[in-house]
Structure formats: structure tokens, C-alpha cells
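The protein record filed here.
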Amino acid sequence: MSTTTEILSETTLLRFATAGSVDDGKSTLVGRLLHDSKSVLTDQLEAVERASASRGQETPDLALLTDGLRAEREQGITIDVAYRYFATPRRRFILADTPGHVQYTRNMVTGASTAELTVILVDARNGVVEQTRRHAAIAALLRVPHAVLAVNKMDLVGYEEKVFEYIAEEFAALAAELGLPSFTPIPVSALAGDNVVERSAHMDWYRGPALLEFLETVPVAAGPVAAPARFPVQYVIRHGEDRHYAGQLVSGALRVGDRVTVHPSGEVSQIAGIDVLGTPADAAYAPQSVSLRLADQRDVSRGDMITAGVDAPALTQDVRAAVCHLADRPLRVGDRVLLRHTTRTVKAVVKDLAGVDSLAANDLGRIVLRTAEPLPLDDYAVSRRTGAFLLIDPADGATLTAGMVALSGPA
């Protein structure tokens, strides 16, 4: 049976995403990080060496370690989100390498949605550009807790401290404007390996950590187990007269004997039993998949949410949120959609788009929705699982928009 200590040991895992404009060297940085941390298999490196030699390159092109799609290799850009798993003696990592081109902004949203840190690259020769602003805005929108500003290609500006300081100050102003949490600027050269895994001898003026050193030591939150208990019901399983409610505990902890509330009905009951992987348990911790049994018969269905404690979610039909539109079909005021929140799907109508008539693919915006039924919502700043939703096309089931609930402040 899992214990709190075992659950909290997940803080040794860091999920992080990378983002940068086209040609900022992001794939090379990721390739260098994997190569210099000895996280590349011999056959992978040999394949990269062969591919590089066929192009007439004398040294391996480390960008090929991450540009896995044939189209990516041919065009020299990142298109899809590539997930990489690697580890050092100090920490395990899940890396989401996201594309930089504006037409693939929605892919960055996907990759960064579960990240605890984002690495935003800029070219030292160009500084903060429009895509940098867009990537910083997405990091702020998704409430990613930590950010690194990797000023790349420092070798092409003579490793000048003033260039680095100017870009860091420019980004600091942008971060303040967007409400981005504090960020850590690191000067790097992905091509030469400066300050990626090892500290650079070319920048003795820089006193901070190399990128990998920072990734290994940045504090990681205890995770969803520390948040209020939220259990969206996925299945109702009947065993004779008993009903068991199955699903994933997305945050917090539940224990036998806890008083709980069922939303949206507001009915109150008590947990009589918990099964984890078919075995009775005294308690469950996020993100375990479990089944619960209540002390008395209640009208609980798929899509309901069971919570414990005083921090109940807000029950509302008026949804204010920040969004990224994902579909090629525009989203317009007056559109009728389906809103999928955890395991619940309800009808909704788009009431307002913050002064614009429509959102096109990859657009970021603000939205107000009216749902046909009340939903138990958390602010996205409090819970990235129960504060998020998707808008679905009722005609064909296609995903239209990803939303982040804003219960307080301007939506």
C-alpha cells in the first residue's frame, strides 16, 4: 500500500518544457543536454553521426536527437511535442520539447500544461522577439511555477556580459507585465556546450549554475497530494446493494471516515471504504486511481465530484477563463459547444471573447461561457487539473479550445 512518504518521493521527478523561436537552437540545446548528461544510447548517437555525415557535417548535429519526425529533419524545425525521459544521480526528468513556430503554438500549450518548469530560449543576437513574448505569455497563462531564460548562442556575441544583461533586463520587464513568476537567466551556447551541463570557462563573469545544475536543484512542489481533495467520479460500479465510485483522485488525500460532499448536488456523506488496485486501504493519495464506497446510498453519477474538507470548489454556471484556441475552425461569440471538465461534459454557449469577434487557431484570449448545468470549478492558479477544461464541437466531437478557469481577477 502506498504511503505519504512514497507519494512525496515523486518530488525527485521534474517535468519541464522547452520553448523558443525558430532557429534559436532549442533542439541543439536539448540534444546537448541529453548528450553531455550521458542520456543518449550508443545506437542513437551512431544514427545521428551517420545522418550528420550524410549532410557533409564534420561533427554530429545534436539537434537530430530530438527532431524525430521525418518532416522535422527535412525542414530543420520542431513540429510535434517530443517527450524525453532521462535521469541523473540527483533527479529524474520528463522533458517536453515543444515547437517554436507560431503555427504550432497549440503544441506548446500541450507540452507545458503539466510542466513545473519551462525553459524559454532566446538568440543572443536577436534578444526578446515576438515569439519570446508569446511563449512567456503561455507560461504565465498555464501558471508554470518556474521559468529559465536561456540566452543561447553566446559564442556568436563574443560571450559578452552586457549582451546577456540587456536581454535579461528586457525579459524581466516582460515577465512583470505578464505576471510570470520569478525566472532564472542563464547564458549558454548549446553548440559549444557552455553552461548546459558544465559551467563555461568562457564566461567567468557568470556566477550562477549551469542549466542542468539548476534543473537538478530547483525546488519542486510536493505535488497534487498537498492540494484539497478532489475526486471526479468516472464509473459507478454496482455490487449487489453496494455502489462503488471509481476514478482518479486528482488532488489531495481521502481517508476512511472522512466526511465528504458530492457536487453539484451538495449531498453529504462519509467514506465507508477505499479500494486501491482491488485491495482495501485506509487512505488514498493523488494521483492514485481508486474506488470509494459511501456510508449511505446517495445519488452519485459519472461526472459528479466528491470532495472533503472546507475548501470546496466554486459551483457556477458562469465560467470566466483564459484560453488557447486549438482548432482550425474559428471560435465565435454565440457558438454552442460542449464543455468537458474532468469527467463531466455539459452544454455551453460562448457569451463573450473579451472584445473580439472570434479566435483563430493558436490564438490566446479571454472567454466567458454560460453552461447548462452548474460545475464545481477551482481557479487554475489553485489546481491545474480541476481548473482546466476543454471545449468540444458538439457536431463531430473535435477538440476546439483549452481553457484555464479564472475565478478571481480579470478573465
